[in-house]
Specification:
With 342 residues, the chain is α/β, with parallel strands linked by helices. The chain is built from 15 helices and twelve strands.
Length: 342
């Protein structure tokens, strides 16, 4: 079971206080994750401050651009995977530039890039950047993945779609990894279908094991029906992880964090299905002492998870975040990676 860490590239004001992590801090956290044995670090993608964050904080949060951030981290690490979790094509209109950035980073990191892509949790961000662009973000995501594959695999490459248009593009070099791993983010049926058709990994978020198992079954069936090997698709759900010496300590830390407020804000978007079904977010996520968390991960493994991706640790300071990372790495990871991290 792979385990990876969510970098605070664009989390101030949402998952963490404002201010939280400087450039130096983010690089140090990535190096710390590598030293602790995390598989990869995942940086999210935000361009402008959400309205609810502006209402809560007078100071604007710092959102670091994810490709540039991961490029710098690549030079400061040796084996750590570098992932976008997730890149939002609705906020990046030129797909050829995205392809060139991804291929370049894959080479400079010696094949360590995982390209996570998604619709984006906040439509208001897309509308702020593109007030006159009338698009269906899900359809745009699907076409973006297809167009990227064309650019990564063909020379010259052309595409004439609803949202992307390019002709006779000789994009070289191609990514070092063939194929470059593309992970599709999202919990709904379309995210599962897109992964089964085009992706190397699926990154759901905050899903109970029963929902995860049903989605994995659909993913595997669709992949098989379309001539793909389901065993080659990484099932990489993302969770909040809050570890304590006992359950009460972990819950107290979680409920008094900015992360908790953020999850409440997602109850009408990313996590709406879980809320509608009556699930307790604290029960879904990896919150408790080490023994509780290990049991939860084993249930997720049985449901089909192969990778706990982009773990988000509730913390109100960098020192608390490092403590959470270290305690999880020392008390949980050895028990869910008995075969050298696989």
């Amino acid at each position: 079971m792979r385990v990876s860490f969510g970098l605070p590239t664009g989390m101030e004001g949402m998952m963490y206080p404002v201010p939280f992590a400087s450039v130096h801090d983010i690089v140090e956290l990535a190096q710390f994750a590598e030293a602790l044995g995390y598989h990869s670090v995942w940086g999210n993608d935000h361009m402008t401050t959400q309205r609810y964050v502006r209402e809560e904080f007078e100071q604007s949060p710092r959102f670091w651009e994810v490709f540039i951030t991961l490029s710098y981290i690549a030079a400061q690490t040796t084996s750590l995977g570098l992932a976008t979790g997730v890149l939002v094509p609705a906020m990046r209109r030129d797909i050829v530039v995205v392809a060139k950035q991804a291929a370049t980073l894959d080479h400079f990191s010696n094949g360590r890039l995982l390209l996570g892509m998604g619709v984006g949790a906040y439509r208001e961000e897309f509308e702020a950047l593109n007030p006159d662009w009338n698009v269906h973000r899900g359809d745009l995501l699907e076409e973006s993945v297809q167009a990227l594959r064309r650019l990564f695999e063909q020379s010259p490459a052309s595409w004439e779609g609803e949202y992307h248009h390019f002709h006779d593009v000789d994009m070289f070099p191609k990514p070092l990894q063939q194929p470059l791993p593309i992970y599709i983010g999202g919990n709904n049926a379309n995210a599962v279908r897109r992964t089964a058709l085009y992706g190397q990994g699926w990154m759901g978020a905050g899903m109970p094991a029963s929902q995860l198992a049903a989605a994995v079954s659909r993913l595997r069936q669709i992949a098989y029906e379309n001539g793909r090997d389901p065993d080659q698709i990484d099932v990489a759900p993302q969770f909040v992880a809050c570890i304590g010496n006992n359950h009460e300590q972990a819950m107290n830390r979680f409920q008094n964090s900015q992360m908790y407020n953020h999850l409440v804000s997602l109850s009408g978007t990313t996590l709406k299905d879980q809320v509608a079904a009556g699930f307790d977010l604290a029960e879904i996520d990896l919150i408790g002492d080490a023994a509780e968390i290990i049991k939860k991960v084993e249930v997720l493994r049985e449901a089909g998870a192969t990778h706990i991706s982009g773990l988000l640790f509730p913390a109100n300071s960098l020192a608390e975040l490092r403590d959470q990372m270290q305690q999880f790495a020392e008390e949980v990871i050895p028990h869910i990676q008995p075969q050298g991290g696989q």
